[in-house]
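Changelog entry

Holo records now carry the ligand SMILES as an explicit input line rather than a separate metadata file. Below, a converted record for flavin-adenine dinucleotide, shown in the new format.
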Amino acid sequence: MVGRAIGSFGKALGDRRWKAFGAGLEGISKEKVDVVVIGAGVVGLAVAREMALKGRDVLVVESASTFGTGTSSRNSEVIHAGIYYPPNSLKARFCVKGRELLYRYCADRQIPHQQIGKLIVATRVSEVPKLSILLRCGTDNGVKGLRMMEGSEAMRMEPKLHCVKALLSPCSGIVDSHSFMLSLAGEAENARAIFSYNSTVLGGHVEDNHLHLHISESKDLENHDDASPLLPQLVLIPKLVINSAGLSALPLAKRFCGLDHNVIPAAYYARGCYFTLSKTKNPPFSHLIYPIPEDGGLGVHVTLDLNGLIKFGPDVEWIDGVDDISFFNRFDYSVNPDRVNRFYPEIRKYFPDLKDGSLDPGYSGIRPKLSGPKQPQMDFVIQDERNHGIPGLVNLFGIESPGLTSSLAIGEYITAKFPG
Ligand SMILES: Cc1cc2nc3c(=O)[nH]c(=O)nc-3n(C[C@H](O)[C@H](O)[C@H](O)COP(=O)(O)OP(=O)(O)OC[C@H]3O[C@@H](n4cnc5c(N)ncnc54)[C@H](O)[C@@H]3O)c2cc1C
Ligand SMILES: *[C@@H]1O[C@H](CO)[C@@H](O)[C@H](O)[C@H]1NC(C)=O
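Structure line, unchanged by the conversion:
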C-alpha cells in the first residue's frame, strides 16, 4: 500500500491537486503505517531489520537513491572495543554489546571482517597516565584482554612504530561496512520491510497526540528555492517513528511541529578527513594504531582496510552554520589537500619513517556531535515519549563513533523497548 502510494508520487505531482488547497495539508494522501524508520544508514538499517524480524511492518524512508551514502560510508570501518566511553554510558554499553553481535553476524554470513587488534600508543612519557586511564575505563566497560605494554614490546610487534608505552586491545577489528549494510538491507527486505528511496521526510506535525510525517520526493528538494514553501506529497501516520536521520536528525526534529524545541539538543558538526598512504607494497603496520584521543575525535590514527590499504585520519575540523545545509543534506565532503600539512607531524610522532609526499587525499566524513570544541564528550541520546511527551516518536541524536560498531545493539535495544 504505502510502497504504491510513494511509487505514485509522480502521478500525485502531475495532477497537482494539493495546489487547490493552498498551503494546508487537505487533499494530500494520508497513509496509516506501523513503523517508519527515517534514514537508511547503518543504524536505521539495523533497527529496520530487527523490527521486521520481530514481525512489524516497517517502511524505511531514505532521501538518497540507496542505503548508506551518509556517515555510514564515510568512517574508519573500525570495530571498536569499547574503551573510550564512560562506564554505563549508552556508548559503552552499545559498543561492547554491538561489537559481540557484529563479529557473530559477520562470521555467520561471511561478511569480510578481521579482528586485527589495536595499539593505543603514548609517544611521550607525559601521555602514559592517559593510557592508564583508558585501561581502567575499558576494563570497567567489560572489554576483555586489554594489556599495557612497554614500548619495546609494542615496537617488536610493529617495527615501524615509535612509542614509549602502548595499550593493546586484541578485540578491535575492521569490517567491510558496505557488505554489512547490504546484508542488513537484504534481511530487512526478506522480512517484508519496504524501502522507499529518493523520498525525504520534510518534517511533520503532531495531531491527536501522534506525529504525522510529511514526505516528498527528494528531487523536489533539489530544485527547491527558498521562496516557495515545501509541500509534501504524502502524509504518513505511523504508530512508531524512528528518527535515525544521522546528521539531519536534529534539524529534522526541529521541523516536527508540536515537538517541544526545548528538548532538542544543540547540534555540532566536525568534519574528519582521511589521507591514504601511497605506493605501499608492504603495509608498514598490521594492527590499528591510535594515538591518545584529542578534543572532538580519537586522533589521527592508522587504519587498514581489508585490502591492506593504509589510511590516516580522521582529523577534526569544526564546521559552523550548517543547520539548513544539514537538513538539505548539502554537506561538503571535499578533502582540502592543504590539510595534509597537519597530518605529517601528527603521524610522525608514532611513525617517524613517514616520507614526505607519501600521503594522498582520501575521503571525509562528518561527525554528528552534541558537544562543541573544548566541551566534555556527550553520550548518544535516544529520546522517547518520556522526554518529549509524544507517543511513538524515537529520536536518535548524536550517533557518532562508535555508531557503526553499536548498530546491531541499538537495533535490539529499540526493538525490545517498543514492542508492537
Ligand atoms: C569520520 C568518522 C569516522 C568514524 N569511524 C567509526 C568507526 O571506525 N567505527 C564506528 O563504530 N563508528 C565510526 N563512526 C561513526 C559511524 O560512522 C556512525 O555512527 C554511523 O554511520 C551513523 O549511522 P546512522 O545510520 O545514524 O547515520 P547515517 O549513515 O548518516 O544515515 C542517515 C541517513 O538518513 C538519511 N536522511 C537524512 N535526512 C533525511 C530525511 N529528512 N528524510 C529521509 N532520509 C534522510 C541520509 O541520507 C542517510 O542515509 C565514524 C564517524 C565519522 C564521521
Ligand atoms: C532515484 O533517483 C535517481 C536519480 O534521480 C534514479 O536514477 C534512481 O533510479 C531512483 N531510484 C529509485 C529507487 O527510484
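Spot-checked after migration. The chain has two domains: 2-71+179-262+378-417, 115-171+267-369. The CA atoms of residues 293 and 299 lie 5 Å apart.
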